[in-house]
Amino acid sequence: MNTLIETRLATLEQVSADLLEVRFKPDLKLDVNGLAEILRERERLCPRGSLAVLSIFPPDMDFDLDVMTTDHYRDRGLANCTRALAIAAGSTMNERMAGLYFAYFPQPFNTSVFQTTEEARSWLTAQVALRPLS
To answer: Please, what's the largest Cα pairwise distance for the chain?
Structure first.
């Protein structure tokens, strides 16, 4: 079941039937093209079923401003294969920016932002329990 995909900005790993972890690489700048590459890989995983997604940011993540002004999920169909999305922000600044992003671009699936990976993983576990696959 363990699938590992490398992109320029992140490693995607399907760690279980329910969970995909997206680990952003340190010392790289998040940009629109890099995020699009990650989302294309997530689209490729869609036929495997609906996944909870844990995105883990390095504490000092830098990003282009365009990342914050684009709804990256719009017209992608990822809502059909995303049960919930949790961001493990790693820093207060990342937490605020991710929270602001989802306030401007709410998604059709549940999203939440946390400081730590443990908090995010716990929330996703609860989301999967609330929305079991039929």
So the answer is: 41
CB 110 within 8 A of CB 84: yes
Is the Cβ–Cβ distance between 82 and 38 less than 8 Å? no
**CB within 8 A of 69, min separation 6: which ones?**
none
Assess contact for 69 and 40: CB atoms under 8 A: no
Q: Residue written as tokens 């940009």?
A: 31
Domains and CATH numbers, the chain: 3-130 (3.30.750)
Residue 132 has pLDDT above 70, yes or no: no
Of 9, 8, 16, 88, the closest CA to residue 45 belongs to 16
Local confidence band at 1 (pLDDT 50, 70, 90 cut-offs):
low
Question: Counting beta carbons within 10 angstroms of the beta carbon of residue 72, is it exposed (0 to 12), middle (13 to 18) or buried (19 or more)?
Answer: middle
Q: Over 90: is that where the pLDDT of 110 sits? A: yes
pTM, two decimals, is 0.92
| C-alpha pair distances (Å), 88 with each of 72, 109, 111 | 18, 17, 11
